[in-house]
Specification:
Elements: H1 5-18, H2 20-51, H3 56-93, H4 100-143, H5 147-166, H6 170-176, H7 182-192, H8 197-230, H9 234-267, H10 271-276
């Protein structure tokens, strides 16, 4: 089936609009709140880093002391956001109309599958990058043309982008199709996107550009408002964080609905939907 971006966008916006209250609540908890918490806990550390920019030794020491908490909080936020995405997918696509609690339970149950799939994907990604790097370095050394190494870098970028598009339906496959085998879920996403990789890439690219433009505009507006109301302190950073958090949460809702719409279009109607037409 050929991917229709207009149809996917129309269905995604309809789903997001019909479920905006519950999706907004989930997005607020799983996307806005972690950002505000990070501002509260790390704003002072960031200020200290800025103060030590002219002192390399102090700057490096402060970076070392921050590494553990920053990495730990980053992993926690990533896990939290993954649960948020999975829960919103369940709320959007589960025909049983689950409650938020039931959707969260399903999301938590599918997290190990997503983690396993991510490990498999990045292992393959690193192997492909290593092979391309070796080929590029070898060709450059044999031919004496250093530019061949640059072509290898370009090839790496192309491979990474292509692979990310191919596995972009991983979450819908896990949640909607209840595919809990990480490798099988990756293979299923790869097959669903067959013949539509270019169209999907352009669609994702367009959404990304629109998102970053909106994010920049909203962030600048909120930061200007924050500075006008509260100066340069932590309160101003929180106000600015609210603005970017709202945009990020809205984008997460739209992205979830888009993935659900793309999956519905490329996977076709479910067995339940087909059988229901004959009831």
């Amino acid at each position: 089936m050929q991917f229709d971006s207009n149809r996917a966008w129309r269905e995604a916006t309809q789903m997001a609009s019909a479920n905006r209250e519950v999706l907004g609540a989930v997005a607020g908890v799983f996307f806005i709140l972690p950002g505000l918490i990070s501002i509260l806990f790390f704003s002072d550390l960031q200020a200290e880093l800025v103060q030590n920019l002219t002192n390399p030794a102090a700057f490096e020491q402060k970076m070392d002391s921050m590494a553990g908490p920053v990495i730990g909080f980053g992993l926690f936020s990533l896990a939290l956001q993954s649960v948020g995405y999975l829960a919103m997918l369940a709320l959007l696509t589960d025909k049983t109309r689950p409650t938020v609690g039931e959707a969260l339970k399903l999301a938590i149950r599918t997290v190990p599958t997503v983690i396993g799939a991510a490990i498999v994907f990045f292992a393959g990604y690193l192997a492909a990058i290593l092979v391309l790097a070796m080929i590029g370095a070898g060709l450059a050394q044999i031919s004496g043309v250093a530019a061949l190494a640059a072509f290898a870098v370009i090839a790496m970028i192309v491979v990474v982008v292509y692979a990310m598009v191919k596995v972009s339906l991983l979450l819908p496959v896990v949640v909607i199709e209840q595919q809990f085998n990480p490798v099988a879920a990756l293979v299923r996403s790869w097959r669903l996107t067959r013949g539509n990789s270019g169209r999907l890439f352009l669609f994702y690219l367009l959404l990304s550009v629109v998102y970053f433009v909106i994010l920049m505009v909203v962030t600048m507006v909120f930061m200007a408002l924050a500075i006008a109301l509260a100066g340069q302190g932590k309160v101003a950073m929180l106000i600015g964080g609210v603005g970017s958090g709202i945009v990020g949460a809205g984008a997460s809702v739209v992205l979830t609905a888009v993935l659900a719409a793309i999956h519905r279009q490329l996977a076709g109607p479910s067995t339940e939907a087909v059988s229901a037409t004959f009831d």
